[in-house]
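Entry type: protein chain
Record version: 2
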Amino acid sequence: MLMSAAALAVIVIGVRKAPKRWMLVPLALLALFMLLSTDAHTPAEFALQYGLAFARAGAYALFCLWFARNNYLAYALAFWMMALRAPLVELFGTANPALHLQAWIITAALPLAVVWAVYPAFLRKREAGAAS
């Protein structure tokens, strides 16, 4: 999770500080190396890892440009959900029913946190509509 956050920060800084727009493509292709797994040993594995990193970077770009923009709470929620991904997999992967229950509780809390973050925006729209 920390590596993904660091990669996102480096890409954003690179986009904002690039002196010329044509430098963005080589910079983005170079920045994708941060997302590669160290387990790639053959050219085919490298190509697969690079393709997956390219898809992940595209998803990050869509999230940053379309959804989150300058909403730092959205970034915090996204990183929180990324941090809980591995523990949820471990909890669901056990044979212990009590741990499955805990995993379901965490899974239910994630959408509630998103609703908590998005709800004030709907209130502002409602208040703006009522005022006009």
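Comment: Residues 70-132 form one domain.
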